[in-house]
Amino acid sequence: MQQTIRDILTKHGGLAMPVDQIADTADLYAAGLSSFASVQVMLAVEEAFDVEFPDNLLNRKSFQNIAAITDAVGSLVGDREAVA
């Protein structure tokens, strides 16, 4: 999951440094993630994992770092599997 998220950030994040040099807990906004890019990342993550971010996860904190994105996606995938 994290590698897929890193690949998405590489393609859509517009970061100032290579994603493989960014720690899981490093601030992506400090690394150059813009508001526009975060929306592009969100859309790509939704497509890649076949999830939809609910309103309560549509905030800066959910996309603050790779670990936060992974946690958010994990909770959405887990919720989907719990319902199935």
CATH class: Mainly Alpha
Unreliable parts:
none
Note the beta-strand portion: under 5%
Helix/strand order? HHH
Largest sheet: number of strands, sense, barrel closure: none
Specify the overall morphology: globular
**CATH-scheme architecture:** Orthogonal Bundle
Structural class: mainly alpha
Percentage of helical residues? Answer: 40-55%
Provide a quick synopsis of the model.
This protein is mostly helical.
Question: Which labels suit this protein?
Answer:
84 residues, mainly alpha, Non-ribosomal Peptide Synthetase Peptidyl Carrier Protein, Chain A
List the helices and strands and how they pair.
Layout: H1 2-12, H2 35-49, H3 66-83
Helix pairs in contact: 1-2
Q: What report would you give on this structure?
A:
The protein is mainly α and 84 residues long. It has a single domain, classed as Non-ribosomal Peptide Synthetase Peptidyl Carrier Protein, Chain A (Orthogonal Bundle). It is 52% helix and 0% strand. The chain contains three helices and no strands. The longest helix has 18 residues, at 66-83. It is globular and about 30 Å long. The two termini are 20 Å apart. The mean pLDDT is 93.
